[in-house]
Design a protein that fits this description.
Two copies of one chain form a homodimer. The first copy, chain A, has six helices and three strands. By secondary structure, chain A is of the alpha+beta class. Chain A has one domain: Winged helix-like DNA-binding domain superfamily/Winged helix DNA-binding domain (Arc Repressor Mutant, subunit A, Orthogonal Bundle). Chain A is globular, with a radius of gyration of 14 Å. The N terminus of chain A is likely disordered. At the A-B interface, helix 2 and helix 6 of A face helix 2 and helix 6 of B. Chains A, B: It comes from Streptomyces lydicamycinicus.
Chain lengths: 111, 111
């Protein structure tokens, strides 16, 4: 939403892809990365919209982290919204499960 | 088996990893590739041990194809055995399904 982007200092609002529009290759590629698996697992452990991007403790820099979130949005895995200077996150668990049954469960269960 | 390797002109017998020993990241990485998805789908359409590596019509060279089969073996997806000069293939569907329920189905269904 434009007003959210403005509130976040004119940062463009994040663009999302619905899981229904995601090819299976895109979904698998998004999940097949250790940093993104970490992000997904952390999101699954917290309530929707409670984690901002700065809350994720991953071993990559700011630009790389931003790229990883972009990949997750494009794969229909994460929804984001800006609130003030924070970008809040939600795992799109229900929609993603409907499109790719069982796939998230494989990533979230103990290996 | 050593005698198979000898029959295939001293080519070393292929080394396999059982799906039970495969981390989910390895399985996802193996599947998240268009050429390997093609190989898997072709295998699923044929009976076990009926396709040799030369039967797969993929858009990569011989060395790259060999690498892709190696990735599939390491992910517990494909079993191979040498018969004369041919390397025959089998999709490890049952074992892989037991380890990663539903994952192969997502790759094999129409996208």
């Amino acid at each position: 939403m434009p007003e959210q982007a403005a509130a976040a200092g004119h940062r463009p609002a994040p663009v999302h892809t619905h899981p229904d529009d995601v090819p299976v290759l895109t979904a698998l590629s998004a999940l097949a990365d250790p940093v993104r698996m970490d992000l997904i697992r952390t999101l699954a452990d917290h309530s929707d919209w409670t984690l901002s991007c700065s809350n994720f403790d991953v071993s990559v820099g700011r630009a790389a982290k931003s790229h990883h979130f972009s990949v997750l949005r494009d794969a229909g895995l994460v929804e984001q919204r800006d609130q003030g200077t924070k970008r809040l996150n939600r795992l799109r668990r229900e929609e993603f499960d409907a499109r790719f049954p069982g796939l998230l469960d494989l990533v979230l269960r103990a290996d």
